[in-house]
Fold this sequence. Notes:
The protein is of the alpha/beta class. The protein has helices at 11-22, 37-41, 44-63, 76-100, 158-162, 178-189, 209-221, 272-275, 310-324, 353-358, 374-378, 407-419, 424-428, 439-446, and strands at residues 3-7, 26-31, 104-114, 117-122, 125-130, 133-136, 140-142, 170-174, 193-197, 225-227, 232-238, 241-246, 252-254, 256-259, 263-265, 279-280, 283-284, 297-299, 338-340, 345-350, 363-369, 385-391, 397-404. Strands 5-4-3-2-1-6-18 form a seven-stranded mixed sheet. A five-stranded antiparallel sheet has the order 19-20-23-22-21, sandwiched between helices. The mean pLDDT is 96. It binds flavin-adenine dinucleotide. Flavin-adenine dinucleotide is lined by residues 7-13, 30-33, 37-39, 43-44, 47-48, 109-110, 137-140, 158, 179, 266, 270, 301-303, 308-311, 313. Flavin-adenine dinucleotide (FAD) binds at residues 7-13, 30-33, 37-39, 43-44, 47-48, 109-110, 137-140, 158, 179, 266, 270, 301-303, 308-311, 313.
Amino acid sequence: MKRVLVIGAGPGGEAAAKRASARGAAVTLVEKNRLGGLCLNWGCVPTKTLLEGGRLLHAVRAAGPVLTGGPLSVDWEALRRKKDELIDGLRRALEQDLSRRGVRVVTGAAEFVDGHRALLRTARGDETIEFDAAVLATGSAPVFPPPFDARRGDVLDSDGALALERVPGRLLVVGGGAVGCEFAGLFAELGAAVTLVEMKDQLLPGEDPAVARVLQGAFERRGLAVRLETVVTDFDKTADGFTVRFSRGDPAAFDRILVCVGRRPVTAGLGLERAGVAVDGGRVAVNDLMLTSAPSIYAVGDVNGLSLLAHAAAAQAETAVDALFGAARPYRNDRVPRCLYTWPEVASVGEWAATARARGVDVKAHRFFFKGSPKALASNEGDGFLQVLSDRADGKILGAQLVGPHATELVHLFALALAGDMRTEDVHRVIFAHPTLAEGVREALAR
Ligand code: FAD
């Protein structure tokens, strides 16, 4: 029986442990903090639970005169309680599931002794275990560039934002990526005066600029101030908060500063050099089967830096475990949906127009605007569009970008189309129900 050691119990480690036990391995899963990792405890699940509170409020406000009754507000304390209860419940379920599958869960910190042994430091003492293969899934930690690096205690990271006891009056969010945009939109809806600063010339750098413009417009209409091509140069503590200076524009006063400028892989203290695992640019280097430079050690999830998303970590874990059992099923980063739970929602999968064009493809963009969707208009969500990219030569679907209602669900239509190597005519043959948001896909392809 293969002995598999999994280090870290976030979505990557969880998926690796489950897959390896399903394949008949003797699995040890070591976690130094909480089962579920960042995703369950401080990332995807808590943020989406809080965002749902903001989204409900937004939906009621958007309904306008259709709904009657006094002004509504969100009880932040109750929302945080709901989040904590939900996380606790899911963590208990995960613990039971792992135990049912026969996975040995060890609470402690692991480090490699060499390519086939690891030291587990637990509250009950140290244990050295041998393994035939190991899956490293130690995740990532937030980055604090200057001027925040020297004054970590003065600013919030995403964990701190989740633990806030009240909604801040004036909030500065630094970083217009996914995490920054989600928190900025949430706190603005809950009543904070939010300023969002982003170094690049668009929100969500890397996503389609047209998509980012729709999100920015929606933010600004809700009173959120967006400052692009701007960095924080310095800040002072004052009696009631902070005065912040920027690379351009006037200084401004805030109660709290939330820094969401990115994360870096956790590679320190793991004994990687002793095990022969190479680190490249701060990330554990892997091939498309998630194998590191050590022949018995795989690395999945945030630690390899391929994609900082939970479902990517899980997909990579399955690739890694299949590979260590001899089945080569290479991981495809371009098949990973990218979702943002703002309102309007943002999602994309596959290639962007610019990268496809750079490959020499003659790209055709098919767009459908949700203001043409009776279903979207009925739910006051006519903002945004969906865009399908195809190869003009043969109609092959290359990717899709969406900004609008339920974009994070609709994107899976395109994930399926990509998985099935479908062409625009294949999708156009599908009958979509009316009225739905999804019928916009067919409409887009008719153009
Ligand atoms: P992690 O979830 O970080 O787990 C790594 C685990 O390893 C941790 O529990 C850590 O304690 C443990 N560990 C580290 N070192 C050791 C050691 N030496 N020994 C034992 N254990 C160790 N992604 C999405 O897909 N959708 C979202 O909506 C989403 N929302 C997010 C919101 C926020 C605010 C943040 C910060 C992130 C969000 N993410 C989201 C990203 C997602 O949480 C991560 O991509 C995902 O958790 C990565 O999984 P992982 O298994 O690689 O690592």
